[in-house]
Write a structure and sequence with these properties.
Layout lengths: L1 H5 L4 E3 L15 E2 L4 E2 L2 H19 L4 E3 L9
Parallel strand pairs: 1-4
Antiparallel strand pairs: 2-3
């Protein structure tokens, strides 16, 4: 990511990955929370991490993500 941000990109399109958590068995374990995390928790952490890190590199940066309302696995 750093190389791309250094090239002048100021954001990411990072949608469509959070439903993939349903393909993981068991669901991801969070050492910080000391429990397995569900889809909403994973999505919040995933998008939040991308957003917060990108903002540290460029205060005007952003991320875009389309909501997913269903998933057929």
């Amino acid at each position: 990511m750093d190389r791309v941000l250094d090239m002048g990109f100021d954001g990411w399109k990072c949608d469509g990955t959070d439903p993939m958590i349903y393909l993981l068995k068991p669901w991801p374990y969070s050492p910080g929370l000391k429990k397995y995390i569900d889809w909403p928790q994973y999505a919040n952490q995933y998008y939040g991490t991308f957003y917060n890190y990108t903002k540290t590199r460029n205060p005007n940066a952003l991320i875009m993500a389309r909501p997913v309302d269903s998933f057929k696995g």
